[in-house]
What we know:
With 193 residues, chain A is of the alpha/beta class.
Amino acid sequence: MRIAIVDESATRAAVLCEGLSAFADCDLFVLTERRGLVARIEEIAPDIVLMDLGNPSRDVLEEYFAVSRALDRPIAMFVDDSDDEAIAASIDAGVSSYVVDGLAPHRIRPILDLAVRRFNAFARLQADLAEAKGKLAERETVDAAKRILMDSRALTEPQAYAELRKTAMNQGRRLSDIAEAVVTAHKLMGGAA
Amino acid sequence: MTTQLTIGFLPLVDACLPILAREHGFAEAQGLSLSLVRDMSWATVLDRLLYGHSDAAHLVAPLAIATTLGRGRPASPLAVPYVLGLNGNAITASPDLANAICPATELGEPTIVGARLKQVATERRESGQPLRFGVVHRYSSHNYMLRYWLASCGIQPDFDVEVITVAPPFCADALEAGEVDGICVGEPWNSVAVERGVGRIVLATAQIWRRGVEKVLALREPVLEGRRDDIERLIRALVAAARHFVDPSNWDANAEILARPEYLDGSADLIRRAISDQLLLCAGGPTVHFPDFMFQHREAASFPWVSQAEWLYTQMVRWEGGTIDADEAHQAARVFRPDIYRSALRGTPEPLPGASSKVEGSLQSMTSVGMEQGVIFLDNNSFFDGRAFDPDDLTGYLAALR
Lengths: 193, 402
């Protein structure tokens, strides 16, 4: 079975590809380039196309599939009524799938299920990464705020930290918000960041 | 108690009304909290609507009808209680083609440009390199307007010229790479091509049909029935946004809002041009004022005339090469819901047409029209070839076009 993965995120395509490689007799083709997409798909003649929902080329590809209906391998979005739940799950995960006519559902389902799992896993990974980045940035801001207090008010590090915490608690705000305010105020007063 | 509504959209200038309804508090004043979901293809906007990620969507009008009729996927009835705008698109040709069909750097006259285009198209077809035009979607007014113009000028789409789909953000790239010779797309994408020197605007689609239906607010029919009150409040918020949008004193501020990264993520200058009906036809040239390039408010522009849905259906059948099917025609007509529009705006200062259908393209000049509420004058709404569309005779209209 020939599977084309169309995704402008090369990382996500690789994650999906790696998962699909576990299936026997699947040829995988990854397309991350927008240019010449339709021509490439035509060349590959895939049985299944998996494409991320954010991909701007979806309308172009759907048009091609609609026109190619006149050819001998009609391709449609994987939707008849029995597929509804599967397609809802794939839309939730952010992946769309197009399948050539006549491919048995029992061959499609495992592939689609895997795509959904991989897309979800990738989204979680990205969320974790964003959170970690956010935490790191917060810690840097708190450190900067502590240094400002230590320098300007001759406090020790634990004292500076206690001061920030006390202010945060009194105002019912997050420690990082207070730290941010200190850093901003300091910058506005002409201090070095 | 505010109600949450999620609306999907593509980053185009005519997504303006839901965006401004949210940003200026018109939605909030109606007890609605709007969240807007931006996507990059109509396919995804539609998927989100059908699978409940969004409650309503900014959608190309023919796609609402195609979805209801089950073109390309299982049928799912959509409802359109509000038209988000008329026209606002243009045809931009590569510099070479523009020089051949519209030598002066001004907006062309559709018949004259069409006659020159026919010559070029015939030569190109005979040389085995037919001209190729890009439209934003198979089921878009862009596709139908372009084809209407071509066919009326004696150029047969799919035979003399090719018409393919190009995503709006890539229209300028496609022109530059020579993948297409012309594009029919909404703003700011014509202007992007012009600014990059890869195209020249030769026609506004408003020159093809003076009052052509463009984007609509589409919902799944069961959602409309189930959330009728919320949707009527949304309509009132959109009307307030439309009134704000067309007021010149708000153009600067609105262009800035629309240009933000979470909305169009584009140039406020280009957006301001479109919303003030100013077009820069070629790089380095003067801007031209083209009145009613976009049409969002006057003349009950947002009223979903059933005859507009029926016109779109005739064009769908026309280019599919089929025949009018009475059941389908009925379903297509039912997509547009003037009853909801009236119910939402009864008792407000908005004019409410008494009829739900009209002969499209029948007015050559300002005409007063009977209203259920208020007074209204409708201006010239003609097609460039002078043909009128009588919704009582779809088959006759289609036969005359063929």
